[in-house]
Amino acid sequence: MRSLFKPAMSVDEVFEACVSNIKDETFLNKMIESKPFIIADSNTYDNLASSRCLMDFSSDIRIDKASMKKMYEQKLVGGPGRSFYNIIIASPPHGKCPLCGERDATNLDHHLPKAHYASVAITPYNLVPICKDCNFIKLDNKPNSEENVPLNPYYDNIEDDRWLFAEIGVENDKIFYYYEVKCPDWWDETLKRKVHNYFNKLELNKLYSKNALIEINDFIDYLLDIFLTGGVEALQKTLEGIANSCERSRLNSWKTALYSSLSSNRWFLTEGIKYYMD
User: Fold this and answer.
1) 91 & 127 share domain
2) pLDDT digits over 40-58, tens only?
3) What is the pTM (predicted TM-score) of this model?
4) Cys staple from 177: which of 82, 181, 212, 271, with CB 3.0 to 4.6 Å?
């Protein structure tokens, strides 16, 4: 998962923009009355998310869900708050989804779903730009334990340690690649389970394995040429160089895991590479 910087905007700024063109006095008064609770809940959310305790968050019962849904859809997405929406949706590096790291971030997801947590429906750090596939898989489920609270790229930095690894297998005389999570021993148990849940729920092994097959098929002629002209040592050196380059870009990318595995797998370097020969 790619970490993101928290949006450089306050809940107060977003709220004021959203209410700036409300002409329905009943709706406007309801929002003005709700503002202190929205601000308070947003601050609570920030504190709990910072300490990985979002399971303890609950939306203020005085907040009307229908009104907050209207605020988000008609005033933030399709109204005067749209500029804030655009800033958030454009924030991921290279426009890529921070959850899968691969597909384009085209949707703005409520980290804690607005259907259950209405008070943070327009809270910037509860709005995460992700791809439509991850958004569809994630759905609006209400977590029932801290380990089932989805990782939030604004708060959960898991990129300082390696946790994503690739393995090589053979089936019907064809090589395939699969991915797995191996969390560092020094991580707490809740974080370990959260990362495993995140990886499994978003079906990242399926996505990354497919990408790995395409990647190697695209570059196999190049790798075979190196192997046939320079042998095992040259192939290993090349794969290590690619792995190091990928790691500098992103420690836990599927490419880093793939090339790190290939460069250190003696079987692949001596025998597996031959599976790609005609």
Assistant:
1) yes
2) 999 999 999 999 899 999 9
3) 0.92
4) 212
